[in-house]
């Protein structure tokens, strides 16, 4: 199989997992070469293609270059036989799927990153920020919990879509590092849907084994 494209990023970036899952479901090969954050993305070669210098960054075999992980995911989703399943077909289906992709980025991932950065020693820990951010994440989880009643997949169809992949990617560092057993117990439908998503064929190979933190540690 000729490679469809290359995605550049540091390893285990949730913003990459969703695209790699979509590539698997579409039978497309997307390579993810070795990359050193702060080095590879500062080289003149990288900046010539991706002047913003952020990752993920994507280059298709046809020369198309893209940044913004959801645009990359959409491009790869549009480019294979699972396109209708992943992105929907009617205007209403497509907009609903986009709604959850935007929700995943703005209402979950942004907060999860605020919670995770002090645990990766990339930002000082601040208790007030931690508590207010946890409240925001829990508001989103409560909304998702209710929405999932009677639904196997977020957009309501019979198969997963990019909505599920974006939300699961946004939550992956959260469940692994911060949203511990006490939080998980409040949102059983979310946890069940999350496991269903990340254990799906094609997704598990991209996301790796799901990790759940038992008790969140407070960074010192
Ligand atoms: N909205 C962008 C966010 C990309 C982003 O913030 N990437 C970070 C790493 S996760 C980055 O490359 N930071 C390097 C920098 O700020 O120079 C997306 O979804 O792709």
From TrEMBL:
Coiled coil: none
GO biological process, one term: translational elongation
Domain GST N-terminal, chain residue ranges per copy: 3-84
Annotated InterPro entries: EF-GSTs (IPR050802), Glutathione-S-Trfase_C-like (IPR010987), Glutathione-S-Trfase_C_sf (IPR036282), Glutathione_S-Trfase (IPR040079), Glutathione_S-Trfase_N (IPR004045), GST_C (IPR004046), Thioredoxin-like_sf (IPR036249)
Pfam families assigned to the protein according to its UniProt record, in alphabetical order: GST_C, GST_N
One of the record's GO cellular component terms: nucleus
Source domain of life: Eukaryota
Domain GST C-terminal: 90-220
Family: Belongs to the GST superfamily.
Record-given protein name: Translation elongation factor eEF-1B gamma subunit
């Amino acid at each position: 199989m000729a490679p469809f494209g290359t995605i550049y990023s540091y390893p285990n970036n949730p913003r990459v997992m969703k695209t790699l899952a979509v590539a698997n479901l579409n039978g497309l090969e997307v390579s993810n070469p070795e990359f050193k954050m702060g080095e590879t993305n500062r080289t003149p070669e990288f900046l010539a293609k991706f002047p913003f210098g952020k990752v993920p960054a994507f280059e298709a075999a046809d020369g198309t270059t893209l940044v913004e992980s959801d645009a990359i995911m959409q491009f790869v989703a549009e480019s294979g036989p699972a396109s209708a399943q992943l992105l929907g077909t009617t205007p209403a289906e497509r907009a609903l799927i986009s709604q959850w992709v935007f929700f995943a980025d703005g209402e979950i991932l942004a907060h999860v990153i605020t919670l995770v950065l002090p645990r990766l020693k990339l930002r000082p820990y601040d208790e007030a920020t931690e508590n207010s951010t946890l409240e925001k994440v829990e508001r989103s989880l409560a909304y998702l919990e209710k929405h999932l009643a009677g639904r196997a997949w977020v957009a309501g169809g019979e198969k997963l879509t990019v909505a599920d992949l974006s939300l699961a990617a946004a939550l992956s560092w959260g469940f692994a590092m911060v949203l511990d057993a006490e939080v998980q117990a409040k949102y059983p439908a979310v946890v069940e849907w999350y496991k269903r998503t990340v254990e799906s064929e094609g997704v598990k190979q991209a996301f790796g084994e799901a990790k759940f933190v038992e008790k969140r540690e407070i960074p010192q």
